[in-house]
Design brief:
Blueprint (H helix, E strand, L loop, with lengths): L1 H16 L6 H15 L4 E3 L3 H5 L4 E6 L4 E6 L27 E3 L6 E4 L12 H4 L8 H14 L4 E4 L11 H15 L5 E8 L6 H10 L1 E4 L2 E4 L1 E6 L5 H18 L8 E3 L11 E9 L4 H21 L3
Helix pairs in contact: 1-2, 5-9, 8-9
Length: 314
């Protein structure tokens, strides 16, 4: 740990002391070599000749267990611009979220939480779309979904506890404690929603465009992110979990046919879906959609959930 920290400090110092007389191309080559020498487990990818000539180099570290990777951008010209605009309806401050929890009713019926709280959208690329930028993350969508469901008469508890920071490993084990704690405190909770966004490898601009087109649609003239439900096949009650996801998907298709994508069943997962009788894992958009597009989906997702649960008397 200390050796890696020392390497990072050395690299940071060298970045500032490299003479201005050294060309930008030579600086980038030097920095890439420093990264590869210091971290042999990191692979530097040069995607094409044009990219090499323009000195646009990206380093990826791929963690096979969690399918995560980290981008290291060399040169200021290669760092994506972060959108700093925030929807005025999003308030994730500590005075609203006491101990990372906001309650809209003394007897909340729905718990919204995020096993992967650091998942951010296209306009917040820091940390390869994983950071504590709450306002451009799945937390912001959770906040708006809380607002929308509350306006429809539901009592909602929304948790902004980080379950994947500082480490991604065991995120679901940590989020299970959040669920159990909330349900122990509020026995009125009968629905749990683990809100994520899908994650894909955005290798280049063409891939980014394809992902964006796949995960967005237009409703009432507004571009919104599509969403879908995920079912963990390792749940003892997987049939009931899938029945719920299929039921909501069918209901959504009748109202907004192009808004919802098919249910995904993951054979290796549990996703804490046995803790509550009505457990949902929903992916709203992806890292190829913007936070505005994902946030715009919240009112439609709320409308669909409200209509389905009331129709089924849940």
């Amino acid at each position: 740990m200390y050796n890696k920290f020392a390497k990072i400090v050395i690299i940071a110092i060298l970045i500032f002391i490299i003479p201005n007389s050294v060309s930008a191309f030579d600086k980038s080559n030097l920095l890439n070599n420093l990264i590869k020498y210091s971290y042999p487990e990191i692979k530097v990818l040069e995607k094409d000749k044009t990219q090499r000539e323009s000195n646009t180099k990206e380093t990826q570290h791929y963690n096979q267990k969690n399918s995560q990777y980290i981008n290291v951008y060399v040169g200021e010209e290669n760092i994506p611009t972060i959108n700093t605009e925030v929807n005025s309806d999003i308030n994730l401050k500590s005075d609203v979220y006491s101990q990372n929890l906001r309650i809209t009713n003394d007897k909340p019926e729905i718990l919204i939480y995020h096993s992967h709280s650091c998942e951010t959208y296209l306009d917040s690329p820091e940390g390869n779309y994983h950071s504590e930028d709450k306002e451009h993350s799945v937390m912001s969508v959770g906040c708006l979904l809380t607002n929308e469901l509350s306006s429809l008469g539901w009592g909602v508890a929304h948790s902004t506890t980080y379950h994947d920071s500082p480490t991604y490993n065991n995120s679901y084990a940590r989020s299970s404690q959040t669920i159990k704690s909330a349900m122990n405190k509020y026995n009125s909770i009968k629905i749990t929603i683990d809100l994520h966004r899908d994650g894909l490898n955005i290798a280049n601009e063409a891939v980014k465009t394809n992902i964006h087109n796949k995960y967005t649609t237009t409703i009432n003239g507004q571009k919104v992110a599509k969403f879908f439900f995920v079912v963990g096949a390792r749940n003892d009650d997987v049939a009931e979990v899938k029945k719920l996801a299929d039921g909501i998907t069918e209901y959504a298709n009748k109202k907004y046919p192009d808004l919802i994508m098919p249910v995904v069943v993951k054979p290796y997962g549990r996703f804490n879906q046995s803790i509550c009788d009505n457990a949902l894992l929903v992916e709203v958009g992806s890292n190829g959609t913007t936070s505005d597009e994902a946030q715009a989906s919240a009112k439609y997702l709320a409308e669909i959930l409200d209509g389905y649960f009331k129709e089924k008397h849940i």
